[in-house]
Structure formats: structure tokens, C-alpha cells
Amino acid sequence: MGDTKENILDAAERLFAESGVSQTSLRAITQKAKANLGAIHYYFGNKETLINEVIDRRFNDYYQNRGNQLKRLLKKASKPTLEEVLRVYIGTLSHYRRSFPDFVRIMGHIMTGPKDKMREMYQRIAETEADWQMANTILSFFPPERHKAVLKRMVVFSALFLSLSTNMPTLELEADHFGVELTEEQLENYSVSMMAAGLRTANQE
To answer: Any idea where the HTH tetR-type domain is (predicted)?
Structure first.
């Protein structure tokens, strides 16, 4: 039974990525998963729940992975640098973008779709202990009176990196236009450096 549920989730993830969530029918999902409609109703009840589970299984794993990496970093004998903390944040995002391209495309569909759907999805996945653990770790590098200014910058950078992750072809086109090559390692290094420098401007506000 577990295999059937995973097959349905895998099929839904692939089809949602290819055609968009609203354009994908339950019948198409059952055909790709080699299951029947009754299996979808048994495991998920309806399409909305199926969509949520497709999203949740990746984000739950993402947050757990990122949280574990952050805990390991914080257990180091010496205090980590801001750049090391940001590398956990950006590195985990980069890893999931490369490992689950279909899921990233789904997020792109949702981000460019109706605003209420995006808000509903974001509120469900973003209000997690892991998010505040990361935020509070970053804030610990700054005096309390600068925390609001830092949070404003974190919001901007988080939105930029999420948008970039769901629209990598644009970055590739820009690189081709200017005749430069950009490796994954360089992209991650530049992102860490830019975010660290941007957050530190909060001390000048």
C-alpha cells in the first residue's frame, strides 16, 4: 500500500511540474501511477489534499535536513561565522533545487499563479520552528536594536533566492548573453557573500 501512495505522489509531482497544478487531472495522475481513482480517494480524499502532500513531503524533508545541518554547525567548538550559517541556508536550497527539479517547477507554477493560493501554501509551510531557528541564529550576529532592520533584509533575500531557484533558465540566459560561465559552486559562493554583505548594512541604518 505504501508503494501505491508513493507512486501517486511521484506521478502527481511530475505531472504538476509538466502541466501545472490546475491543468492536471486526477485521471492523468492515476494513469501515470498505474493506480485507480479509488486509491487517490483512499489515501488523499481529494485533489487539494494530494497537492498539499506533494508539497509537504519535500518541504518537511527540506526543513529537517536544514535544521540538522544547522545543529551540527552550532555544535562546533568555535562560534560559526555568519557566512557559515548562510551557507547552510543557501546550500540546502541549492541542493533541493538540483535534486528535485520537478518540485521546483511546481513551486514556480504556484508562485506565478493566484496570490491567494500562494499565500495559503506559504503560510502552511513557512511557519515552522526551523524557520525561526535559522532566523534567530542569523539575528544572533547583530545587536537587538538592529534585529528589525536585519529581518527586513532577510525577507528580501529569501524572496530573491526562492524566485531564482524556481527560474534558473533566466539566470542561464543572462549568463549566455554576457558570455560568462557560472558554476553551481560560484552561484552558491556569490549568494552567500551578497546576503552576508547585505545583512551587515543593517548596522549602518
So the answer is: 2-62
